[in-house]
Amino acid sequence: MREISVLIGGKAGDGINQAGILLARLFSNMGYFVYMYFDYPSLIRGGHNFALIRASEKKISAHRLRIDYIIAINQDTVDFHKSKLRDQNNIIYDSDAINSSGQGLPLSKIIKEEGAKPIMRNSILMGAFARAIGIDYELLEGVIKKNISKELNLNLKLSARGYKSAKELLGLTALKKKSLPVLTGNEVFGLGLISAGLEAYVAYPMTPSSNILHFLASAADNFNLKVVHPESEIGVILMALGFSYKGRRVAVGTSGGGFCLMTEALSMAGMAELPLVIIVAQRAGPSTGIPTYTAQCDLHFVLSAGHGEFPRFVVAPGDSEEAYYWSNAALNISWKYQIPSIILSDKVLSEGAFSFDRESSGNSSREEAVLWKNEGAYKRYLNTDSGISPLAFAPNRGAFIKVNSYEHDEYGITTEDPKEIMPMYEKRLRKEKYLAQELIKYDAVKVYGNKKAEIALLCWGSNKGACIEVAESLGLKVIQPVVFSPFPRESFSDALKGVKKIIDVENNATAQLAGLIAKFGIFPDEKILKYDGRPFTIEELEEKVKAVIS
């Protein structure tokens, strides 16, 4: 199989993320599937940043431990990562600042001669790397023109100098495949919400969900979106509930710490039956934790967040195609059932960059909510067989639209009458039964690998990519629940048929998925847990799986 893994590194402020995206799009233009992982500390300046870009002829969403090339802007990049190289000479670096083997270029000298900014060193290195792996300069030039708008001519000149200064070490053959767009998971979440009719997005920036806000703000004019950045996460969700009351399809984005502040208003959404989508992009905790690194430690939290009992839809996509499909589904489900929907992501999915194939992400569209027909007296909480009441939105001269966080009767009038309380309670909970039935038509549990294997890797979220590749290598089955509330118990049981050994793979310390399925009498035989803020590499996971199946 043809593939290549490249690491580019420097310090915060060196433009490592953008350089990584540029490399990923270069490989994509050659017909390769790509995946990029971005690693950075929580520092505005300084610290070690690096991007791992992997290109393969097959669909991928995980990175390898071993790398083929290093592109280094500082000495730390060489010192920290040289041991991972397959060939110690495959380093392209700034010879004015770094002592290393490989191909050195005097970046500071070139920058001074061209009157360029230090951040433009990346353009020189991109040119040198393209030459080193045998890519025609015209291809790199096209990618730069498409992705760099500021001082384009100077960046092209610098990349050409880098290209002429390097020597070819490896010939990477272009594939005869269509080029797919390279998007971050956060961008795809935004597109999925837009496809379902998103009208408003409200967020306070919090890593790793922040880029959804930035992306949707940049796209707002094209899609008639209202994008708002309030003063706090409490302000975010309360403003979102106001949008929902007015009939605007709305979503918010945050991480675990911000979601903590939203939980009281989440309960209000449950009682008032206000549709709302919340994207919770997980990072390592508790508290501030390690804010720019990954984890899968909020599953139990989002399943039980808020006081009182009310239905919610919880889904955890595993790659960019699922991010698109399920963000669309979450917004539609939220409005159909008038419940909060929660999308669980993490740093790897949200900030990672993927080849995004819209055609393979599944059918998605906008579903309309059940609306009041302006007949008779309006009952906001009409007690129906399904629990779903027809919606009306202010201003409406024919209706008093009372939305209440207190317990209420069908009109929305506050009540403490036990004869009124139980029917309303049962009405709200009844929606979950109908939603669970509807989920049968969705792919709520995915199965990959050797479907007849007796050993299965159980995973969720972004661990999907590494688990699939390890399973393919070892002849195992992969079971990936995507929906967690209502939990698709029947589909999950079907996926387990023929399995004699379950190996649970999670990025947390307490095996939260294992704890969830234990409620249904299902107990994994082995657990492979990682909770240092970093995702599994394919080699690392394969070694651990071999150890428990031998």
UniProtKB/TrEMBL annotation:
Keywords: Oxidoreductase, Pyruvate. Residues 192-426 form the Pyruvate flavodoxin/ferredoxin oxidoreductase pyrimidine binding domain. GO terms for biological process: response to oxidative stress. The keyword Lipoprotein does not apply. GO terms for molecular function: oxidoreductase activity, acting on the aldehyde or oxo group of donors. Residues 12-163 form the Pyruvate/ketoisovalerate oxidoreductase catalytic domain. Pfam families: POR, POR_N. It comes from the Bacteria. Gene3D superfamilies: 3.40.50.920, 3.40.50.970, Pyruvate-ferredoxin oxidoreductase, PFOR, domain III (3.40.920.10). This is Pyruvate ferredoxin oxidoreductase. It comes from Candidatus Ghiorseimicrobium undicola.
